[in-house]
Amino acid sequence: MEQELTMEELIALINSQKGDFVIRVEFGEEAVSDAKEE
Question: For FRET with 32, which of 5, 21, 24, 25 sits at 20 to 30 Å CA-CA?
Answer without folding.
Answer: 5
